[in-house]
Amino acid sequence: MPSQLFQPFDLGGLHLANRIVIAPMCQYSAEEGSATDWHLIHLGNLALSGAGLLIIEATAVEPEGRISPDDLGLWSDANEAALARVIEAVRRHSDMPIGIQLGHAGRKASVHSPWTGGGQRPLDDRGWQTLAPSALPMQAKDRPPLPLDAAGLKRIREAFVATARRAVRLGLQAIELHCAHGYLLHQFLSPLANQRDDAYGGSLENRMRFPLEVFDAVREAVPATIPVGVRVSGTDWVEGGWDIAQTISFCEALKARGVSFVHVSSGGVSAAQQIALSPGYQVPLARAVKAATGLPTIAVGLIIDYEHAEAVVAGGDADMVALARGILYEPRWPWHAAAHLGASVKAPKQYLRSQPSRYRNLFES
What we know:
The chain contains 10 helices and 12 strands. The strands form 3 sheets. The chain has an 8-stranded parallel beta barrel, surrounded by 4 helices. A two-stranded antiparallel ribbon has the order 1-2. Strands 6-7 form a two-stranded parallel sheet. The longest helix has 20 residues, at 150-169. The protein is of the alpha/beta class.
């Protein structure tokens, strides 16, 4: 049988050559939100990998929404021009579809980059006051975030819209809203981070309200031909937190609003999470969402073996498989997967002569 991982897939109005997605990965290498030469090297490399879709890292919709002061953003004309330079260069050498993940870090903002130790930055060291649904810090030692009032909610909602419109102007072909990993929209969803007593807290319906408002506003603001999907955390891995049943309810609400896909991850909202890591540990969450909603679903999380990725798609657990750190380690993962599974993959003409003699049909002609 032909490999199912390398079958094409239509994501809304976007045609993908195969089911391999490059997940968004923070690079902590921007300057005041603007993309740098590192992004040109990084994205250019990944755009030659043969994957079906490349999603640019979590991109902040306002300065306070950055995870670190070195995060990518798209709130200004300067940010837009810098990212345009990168995309235009990549596009000259690759026609791989490129999307972008839009997010706001909420209470998890204002931190050091991972290689400098992480942790919240002091206000006098490039740090800032964080924002959240409630005045609950991520870590006990962190500064409490300021609870967002009605004006703050409106500003952030409009910032998502403005950033989505910039993404459209840049020619990006898909938008993913970050509602996972403990960032702002996930903070609204999880009862561990949201203890509001207004229309945005308490019941599941109320906790879903702001993320759904952001989705509605973005979906309305961009052309219908551009898929708008959502990254979700299927569970907080903490008793009494966000779980798969609530995730399914959220995804059903998104489906009713025209969501194009759901990218299923987990965790990130609480330091008390208990995660048993193993290959494909999040695949059951994607399977549950797909089975309950029928939405196009992306599975992610320690899927690094070619046969495993094939089994996830062929077995109906998810429609697509996303790679993150695994494809940084092995940037030609789709080439090697295609060789192993007897499939073909697109390669740049400059690399065609690298095709091994034992894989005569590896590169598409």
